């Protein structure tokens, strides 16, 4: 990312100004935050920003306590920015998965109707195939439901953390 940066002498001065600081925080004040702040004046970690979408694949259970601990001593502005970014990414994931979940439920219902119709026409072969597809659609809907449940739990944890970050 090309943009403003201080001249090297100022970067060194900024780094020295924080010598001895003991406010390290993996999510909000790590070495990348520090280096970026020294150079640009903005405390930012691209690695952390890229990590947030990955949390949608993690187990949400137990996420609140680590987030809560990571907020201790964090710069409130950085914490809020990161947490709002996390909420935004969670919403994007929700908006991708929710329609897939609804579609899978509709497909399961459609295949169920096809199976019933096939049986009424004495087409056991078609009914069996339709029921196999119904089962697959239900499995897919279940996977999507589990993902949505995790996203909901993560969203709740991030919202709780945002309340903590706001003081």
Distance between the termini: 32 Å
Largest sheet: none
Percent of residues in helices comes to over 70%
Determine Rg (CA atoms, Å): 24 Å
Structural class: mainly alpha
Protein model, in words:
The protein is mainly alpha-helical and 167 residues long. It is 72% helix and 0% strand. It contains six helices and no strands. The longest helix has 45 residues, at 76-120. It is rod-shaped and about 85 Å long.
Architecture blueprint of SSEs:
Layout: H1 8-17, H2 31-40, H3 46-51, H4 64-71, H5 76-120, H6 124-165
Short description:
The protein contains six helices and no strands.
For this entry, give a set of tags:
mainly alpha
């Amino acid at each position: 990312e090309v943009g403003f940066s201080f001249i090297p002498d100022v970067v060194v001065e900024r780094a020295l100004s924080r010598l001895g600081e003991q406010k390290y925080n993996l999510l909000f004040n790590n070495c990348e935050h520090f280096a970026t702040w020294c150079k640009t004046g903005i405390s930012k970690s691209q690695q952390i920003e890229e990590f947030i979408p990955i949390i949608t694949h993690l187990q949400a259970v137990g996420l609140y306590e680590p987030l809560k601990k990571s907020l201790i001593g964090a710069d409130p502005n950085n914490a809020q920015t990161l947490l709002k970014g996390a909420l935004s990414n969670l919403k994007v994931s929700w908006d991708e998965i929710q329609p897939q979940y609804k579609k899978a439920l509709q497909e399961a219902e459609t295949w169920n109707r096809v199976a019933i119709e096939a049986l009424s026409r004495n087409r056991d072969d078609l009914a069996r195939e339709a029921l196999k597809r119904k089962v697959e659609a239900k499995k897919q809907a279940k996977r999507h439901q589990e993902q949505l449940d995790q996203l909901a739990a993560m969203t709740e944890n991030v919202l709780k953390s945002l309340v903590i970050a706001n003081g």
